[in-house]
Amino acid sequence: MNTSDAIKFRCEGVNVWYGDTHAIKDNDIDIHDKSVTAFIGPSGCGKSTFLRCLNRMNDTIDICRVTGSLLLDGNDIYSRDIDPVQLRARVGMVFQKPNPFPKSIYDNVAYGPRIHGLARNKAELDTLVEESLSAAGLWDEVKDRLAAPGTGLSGGQQQRLCIARAIATKPEVLLMDEPCSALDPIATETVEELISGLGERYCVVIVTHSMQQANRISQRTAFFHLGNLVEYDTTNAIFSTPKDDRTVGYVSGRFG
Amino acid sequence: MLSMTALIILILTVAGFFMARNRAVILGGETPALLHSRPVYHGGYVCARTAIAGFGVLIVGLILSNIAIRWALYSGLPGGLSEIERDLLVSDGVALASGALASRTDEARQAVATLYGYLSTIQVWGLALLSVCIAALVLARSLGQVAIPFRARNRFERIVQVMLIVSSAIAVLTTIGIVASLLGQTLVFFSDIPVWKFLFGTLWSPLSGVHDGTMDPEKVGAIPLFAGTVLITVIAMVVAVPVGLFSAIYLSDFASARARSIIKPMLEILAGIPTVVYGFFAAITVAPFLRDTGAAMGLSVSSESALAAGVVMGIMIIPFISSLSDDVINAVPQSLRDGSYGLGATKAETIRNVILPAALPGIMSAVLLGVSRAIGETMIVVMAAGQGANLTANPLEAVTTVTVQIVALITGDTEASTAAGPAFALGFTLFCITLIFNIWALRLVRKYREVYD
Q1: Residue B336's closest chain A neighbor by CA?
Q2: pTM for the full predicted model
Q3: A85 vs B333: CB contact, 8 Å cut-off?
Q4: Min Cα–Cα distance to chain A from B203, Å
Q5: Nearest Cβ partner of B453 from A87, A97, A151?
Q6: Contact flag B344-A169 (C-beta cutoff 8 Å)
Q7: Are strands A75-76 and A64-72 parallel, antiparallel or unpaired?
Q8: What ipTM is given for this predicted complex?
Q9: Residue A121 pLDDT level (bands cut at 50, 70, 90)
């Protein structure tokens, strides 16, 4: 298995509250670079909440409070001198429902580079857009209609466009919140292949409801239950020799 | 007498409802589910039939008999009179019969009065009797229809459906009627005055040129009025669009829930202030303030200025733009905001690059609504911008608008038939402009919708 041992995210004693609700309870996890890490668990277990801590998307929710230490390459992302806006350029995110902007395909991909000034001229921007669309496996399908609206693509194409959009910002980490749950099985297969490939170049963290999906595309899997990180190991170990009774119950389909 | 008749028909109608319902209940007896229609539908059906028959006969009869009476009165007049004399004779006769003052009382008028009194008595009694009888007849007949298999529900719903169609037809027909009368009067006006003199003339003083009931074509140039309307509308939109849009952005994306719950209703209060109040606010507070400020800076600002009217009109339009834009901006899905934040965009970048483009069609329609309010607004301009048709692009001078001139023409001392000509022409032109504007706006919005949905 092609796993890297370099640690991208080191999280210790992470707690999250929504108002009075204790959503994440004192969790530790190390996320490895250049691999796919899957978060699984029943609905409401906190896996999406934890994912959204990693790029401080929870900051946009007023009542949300995060404590503990979350280190990205050794730097605390919740420290005062980190600007969440800059952090999110390094830690990209793809959402559950494809959400292309109401702009052309080209402008969707060029959005991040334009904001962050990643291209000095039109030619560089063109190259970056092409690279990103190619990396997302969408270039051949859309190269002749880059000016067409992104919202006119099919669901699976839209989600790959969102992935291309995230890649174009040249992030180090890609967070994916159930990226296939709004897609049909064929589109899911395409996107899954894409994610597996991205795992070789980026640190990819994916939240999924589908254990088969976690099994297919991830190298490591974390099982969350009621706000606790119950078990975290290589995907093989989680699915073949789970240690905790709750993990056994979940992966064997007894609850969830 | 006729109101008495209407009351009787109403009583029959209500009685019909309860009688039919009771009858259906009794027919249903122990097993009401056997009835095809619930008793209330039987009641509604009989009630509607009775009302339609009774009031229908009353109204149609009234219209037809009035026509008949007029015809009878005119055909009874002595021969050899001009049309105006005949009209006068009849109207005096009718006035005499109802005890009002007439211009003269002579034999011919008395004859008309007697004939009218006789005929109208027959009309009232005949109609009363006829409509009550027919209502009662229809009531009895439709009451007889109440039976277990009778499909009262379907028929009642059919009647309701026809009522809905008639209601919408009334709205449409009224519009067509207004446009037609506007068009007719305008054509009459333009038969005397060349269209191009009206549309491109630069001197507006229509009533000063009236000699023997005809107008001087040189003095009905509407350009100053359109220029004034455009000037004031532009000033109003310059005030209203940025303020309205920015407050909408603040409300939707920056304000805390608490601040929003206070500010939004307060903004909407602005929309509830009568325009008359805005008008005297403009005339009494804003205009003198502008004049004094201008004087202090060495500018001569007239005490009635386009600027004062435009600024206050802009304030009036703010809530329309902010409230509508706020709704539209809020309707932009959170997922688009998340997507942009997730790429490392700041709030401002997200609003500028994602939210505003996505909300643009809605914002456009809010702005266009504001423009049409500004064009049609009268009160503020009457009070604060003056009456003199002054062709200028200087916002510090007094100007006048199309709507103000229509008011001046219709409420002025000049005989209505003379003043109505230019008023109708102005009204029709305004209507055409707004119509073109609305169609253009709709197309624009639709174009954006096609691209972005």
Answers
A1: A99
A2: 0.74
A3: no
A4: 49
A5: A151
A6: yes
A7: antiparallel
A8: 0.87
A9: very high
